[in-house]
Amino acid sequence: MDTHLAALLQLQELEQRHRELHSQITTLPQRIAHLEKELQPARERQQAAAQAIETQQGERKQIEAQVLELKQKIEKSRAHSAEVKTNQEYRAVKDEIEWAEREIRQREDRLLALMEQAEKLEAERAGAQQTLAEQEAGLAGRREEMTAAGEVWRGEQRELEKEIHALRAQVDANLLHRYDRIAKLRGKALSAIVKETCSCCRVRLRPQFLQEISNHPERRFFCEYCGRILYQATVEVPPFTGDIQVAG
Asked: What is the spatial distance between Cα 227 and Cα 203, in angstroms, rounded to a whole number?
């Protein structure tokens, strides 16, 4: 294998890794934002408990105000009873007081029920708040890990860009142009010959073509179906050192 192909193979690996890093980095904000969605159920439980407590407190205040109003009405009725002059008027005042007392008892029973319910609601809110706090702490750690990983990826990406730039500067311009065109169209520009087949498009190569490749290892060949640059998978790829030699 000539050194240009060796350089392109390493270039292909580096650019593939660069694309992977780019995908990881560009989707990182979305993945971090997705973490916040994991908190939504716990937040909804906490908000529901808080809303239930607020609603209950509103009802208690309303009932307490009604009780106070009824007690004031009883006081006025009792004060008025001293002024009545007929039995009919006295019975009317008495009925009014008894009705108000019954209404007070009903409301006080409801207040007791609400007070018992309030203890359960407070326990539910406390539990929801604790669960939310625990989940937030756990997600904060994961968010920090992902942010740190992003910084590592960016650092690796910058180093890859330097290596990629150095490799591209050394490869034959015409070959590099064809490599870029194939990579843009196919994703991978180089393909290994495995069991007489192009490993990328999976098309079996013609026997005459394979014989020509075998007879001329110094030449460059392209898959007759997908157009990718071919190389023998059985040939050990030498590490590219930057020393480009012109193929014969």
From this structure: 11
